[in-house]
Amino acid sequence: MLNFSFLHKKAGNSIPERIQECLRTIQDDSDERYNESTIPPVNEQIKIRCIWVIELYPPSHIDNLLACIEKLNWNIPHKALPNVNVTKWIKDNRQSSFGSGFNLKYIKREKTSSIDRIAPMPDGFDGAFGTILQLIPSTTILMMQFLVNSEKEQILEKPLNKKYATYVEYNNGIYSYINPLQQKRIEVENIRKGLYDKCYEWFITHAPGVFSSGMYDGIFPTCEFTTLDVGIPFINTDSEYLRMLDFNDAAFIWKMKIIQEYCLKYHRITSMIIQDSIFLGILMRYFQIMKIN
To answer: What does each of the 293 residues of the chain score in pLDDT, given as a tens digit?
Structure first.
């Protein structure tokens, strides 16, 4: 039985007795079942591998990107493209190029050789792969693939394995019971938001563009790559722990025909503007594919 009375403080200290009695009944009848049903199998590993974020640089913001490249010394020659200057490439391709790209390769926290590109990294991330895209003239995209480190990559498992107690919340004359399922989903979303916000802050600090300006309420185009060892997202729709991760609903799903172990889910949609997505793969099959290639 989970009966943590200290959680009542969220509704204040004057909860009517009938509400308290109902709360105790809910805690006794449901909390343990909710907590146990949302714990992943012992052989499951849920890992956030990386997070892609893009920023946009029209003429009004391109100087910020060029200043970032200069400040971080990304114009250093790379062994793959020793004679290409990043700043010059951007300026040349903004004139008339369609569908071109420049691979910045792996960007480290600290320089280990003379050809390394380095940059400060958000807490919880080891490094990033950077790509500059010129899809249309005069508008440049910087895409950063931030790699989650080993200490943070399984962070979504923590709220799933934690036990919660239903509490009462009071708002505008209405008492609401917030059960363990709701609390776990909220915590999962807060963890995701925390990781995303760290990536967004990197752009705001080092290379601010259109999305950094707050024009879209601080939202950047984002894609999270998560792998599972056991669960099959969007097929095991009755799995409670997948439901907590928002991996159960098959709406807004795109699946690859060639590599069927991968699928892309639009995670949140507001006013038909895609805010972010989750790119999912099953880990063991992922490694098999890598071996084939």
So the answer is: 343 433 444 545 578 899 999 999 999 999 999 999 999 999 999 999 999 999 999 999 999 999 999 999 998 766 656 667 999 999 999 987 678 899 999 999 888 877 789 999 999 999 999 999 998 889 999 999 999 999 999 999 999 999 999 999 988 889 999 999 999 999 999 999 999 999 999 999 999 999 999 888 888 999 899 989 988 887 766 789 999 998 887 777 777 777 666 777 776 644 434 456 666 665 444 333 333 32
| Residue partners of 215: CB distance under 8 A and separation at least 6 | none
Nearest to 96 by CA among 124, 56, 136, 45: 136
- The model carries a pTM of 0.85
CA neighbor of 225 nearest in space, from 50, 4, 34, 40? 50
CA distance 129 to 146: 7
Q: What single-letter amino acid sits at 195?
A: L
